[in-house]
Amino acid sequence: MNRICERVKSETVLAPVSQEAAGNTTSAYVYGQEKKTIDFVLTFGALAAGKKLTLELLNATDGDGADAKTLSTVTLTAPEGGWTSGCHVVSVPVKGDLEGYYALKVTNDAAAAVLIGIVAQYEPRFTPDLVDCTLVM
Fold first, then answer.
1. How many other CB atoms are there within 10 angstroms of residue 100's CB atom?
2. Higher pLDDT, 74 or 93
3. C-alpha–C-alpha distance, residues 52 and 86, integer Å
4. For the residues of 45-96, what is the DSSP string, one character each?
5. Which of 9, 29, 69, 74 is the most core-located residue (most Cβ within 10 A)?
6. ∠ CA 33-13-49, rounded to 5°
7. Model's pTM, two decimal places?
C-alpha cells in the first residue's frame, strides 16, 4: 500500500527556539533536487496584538546559504487580542531554474521573545512504481 506517510518526508529544520525580540532566525537549508514542492511549516507561540512575524523564503546555491536571495515575503500580524499560538505554511514549487537550497527566515518585531519551530515537508519528484499491489474492492 502506498501510504502518504511513506511518500511525504519531514525534517526538522529549526528545532523550537525562543526568537529574541526584534531579531531574526533562519532555518537550515533544504536541498531542492528531486523534490516537487517543499512546505515549510512554522509553528509559533504567543504573539501580542499588532505584533508581526515576517517570513522570507530564501534560495541559495549551497547548504550554507551562499548567494541567498529572497523569493517571497509574507508578514503575519496578530489580530486584536493577539495569538496564543499559531501555524503557517510557506510552500515553494521546485522548478528547474530554482533548484538549489531553500530556507525560511523569521523576523520578530515584537518587544518580547516568541517561541518558533520549523519543519520542512516534501514529496520526492519521482516515486518508484508500486510493486506487489492488490486492488481491494
1. 21
2. 74
3. 12
4. --B-TT-EEEEEEEEESSTT-TT-EEEEEEEEE--TT-BS-EEEEEEEE--G
5. 29
6. 125
7. 0.84
